Structures are given as C-alpha cells and as structure tokens.
Amino acid sequence: MKTIFLLFLLSYSVAAYAQIDDETIIRKNIAAFSDAIVHRDTEAIANAYTPDASIFPNGFDIIKGTKDIKSYWTPRSGTTTTFHKIYPVEIVVNGSTAYDHGYYEVSGINDGNPFQGVRGKYVIVWKKMDGRWKIYLDIWNRAVSK
C-alpha cells in the first residue's frame, strides 16, 4: 500500500512540476510577444501563433492564418508602439492546451500624437506543438477606464 501511495505521490508531483514549468514557459512567451511588438518584429509575432491560429481584434472580422495575422500586426506608417505589457491574471494548463486571461497596456505614437496607458483585456488559448507553446486563439478589446 505504501508503494502505491508513493507512486501516486511521485506521479502527481511530476505532473504538477510539468504544469508549473509549462506556465513559466507561457509567461516567457507572453513577455517575448510584448517585446516583439515594441521592436516591430513581425516575424517573431507571426511565429508566436499556430499556423491555423485566429485572432479576434476589436472592430475587425476574425483574422485567420499566419499570413493574415502577420499582416495585421505589421505596424502602419506613423504608428510606433513604445510600451506593451501583458499582465496575466490566470494561466491554466491542461495537457497540450492552455488558456490565460488578463489585461494589457500599450503606449506609443499614432500620427505624431502620443498615447499612454491604453488598457485592455484579453483571452488566449494556447496549443503545445512540437514541444513549443503557441497561440491558437487570441481575443482582446479595450477595458473601460476606472
């Protein structure tokens, strides 16, 4: 009986460690995504998504696939993002799928006019593909200021 209990405890510990490790990797991916936006690295942004990913930006139809997602994230002339940060409230990992939700903040310049502290909320569904966590579904919109 002790052996069965110890095996159960060991397998539970390994599963919990793997989930914590996956959560850490997702947090690093979130930070890298923000960094790629600030540095206008559309390749890194596009590669953060699965090939069949969909994004749901506010005011747009659903945008699907790497090419169209990359086009969406390509900075428009006169637009510069100087700050982008994502604040996850919760990250849940379940096997090769995960989700997280939280808030984001962005500042920058649009046609010569600076903007600061624009806040929004988001939900992301992640898929683990070939050992890497990638964004499968990504929806966001502005949050009402307090």
Throw out a few tags for this protein.
Nuclear Transport Factor 2, Chain: A, alpha+beta
Count helical runs.
3
Strand content is: over 45%
User: Given the C-alpha coordinates, what overall shape results?
Assistant: globular
Task: Summarize the helix and strand pattern as letters.
Answer: HHEEHEEEE
The total number of structural domains is 1
What do the pLDDT scores average to? 89
Tell me what the structure shows.
There is one protein chain. The chain has a single domain, classed as Nuclear Transport Factor 2, Chain: A, CATH 3.10.450.50. It is globular. Mean pLDDT is 89; it is low at 5-10 and 12-17. Strand 4 (97-110) and strand 5 (113-129) form a beta hairpin. By secondary structure, it is an alpha+beta fold. The longest helix is centred in the N-terminal third of the chain and has 37 residues, at 2-38. A 6-stranded mixed β-sheet has the order 2-1-6-5-4-3. The protein has 3 helices and 6 strands; from the N terminus they run H-H-E-E-H-E-E-E-E.
Ordered list of secondary-structure elements with their pairings:
Layout: H1 2-38, H2 42-47, E1 49-57, E2 63-64, H3 66-73, E3 79-94, E4 97-110, E5 113-129, E6 132-142
Parallel strand pairs: 1-6
Antiparallel strand pairs: 1-2, 3-4, 4-5, 5-6
Quick structural gist:
By secondary structure, the protein is α+β, with helices and mostly antiparallel strands. It has a single domain (2-142), classed as Roll (Nuclear Transport Factor 2, Chain: A), CATH 3.10.450.50.
